[in-house]
Amino acid sequence: MAQSTNITDGIQAVSSTGPVAPSSGLSVASYSSDYTLSITVSGMTAAASARLQFEVSVDSFATVTVVAVLDLSGQILPQAPVCQSWRAYQLGPNASTLIGTAGAAIRLNCTELSAEASMNVLGQIWA
């Protein structure tokens, strides 16, 4: 049975763009070719829009490779969260060449968020 590891520091309240804590990411050097990435948004302001993306890096995020993107719009209520997951084979060759590499780390980044918006986000990897 797959076990989850948080990429974010638990559920994070996000009200601005930028890396979701921790910005240093999670080491993925030991992950094999069979894993699942997931994003759960358990609340978002009405009329808001946002873009979340998983980024992988081997140089402490000086350069990043985007491996998965989730675009959101509209209110999300805690009792009806939005969950999106991607299996390793769905992420394409960039992810497979980086994840499992020495020094590789992954983080969740909020690259777009409408003004006055906020959301609650959890990023995980399952293996």
Q: Would you kindly provide a written description of the structure presented here, covering whatever features stand out?
A:
It is a single chain. With 127 residues, this protein is mainly β. The chain has 1 helix and 10 strands. The strands form 2 sheets. Strands 1, 2, 5, 8 and 10 form a 5-stranded antiparallel sheet that branches. The longest helix is centred in the C-terminal third of the chain and has 6 residues, at 93-98.
Distance between the termini: 8 Å
Biggest sheet record: 5 strands, antiparallel
Averaged pLDDT, please? 96
Low-confidence stretches: none
Number-wise, the strands total 10
Task: Provide key terms for this protein.
10 strands, 127 residues, five-stranded antiparallel sheet, 1 helix, 5% helix, mainly beta
Question: Outline of this structure?
Answer:
With 127 residues, the protein is mainly beta. The chain has one helix spanning 93-98; strands spanning 4-6, 12-14, 18-19, 26-27, 36-44, 49-57, 65-73, 82-87, 105-113, 119-126.
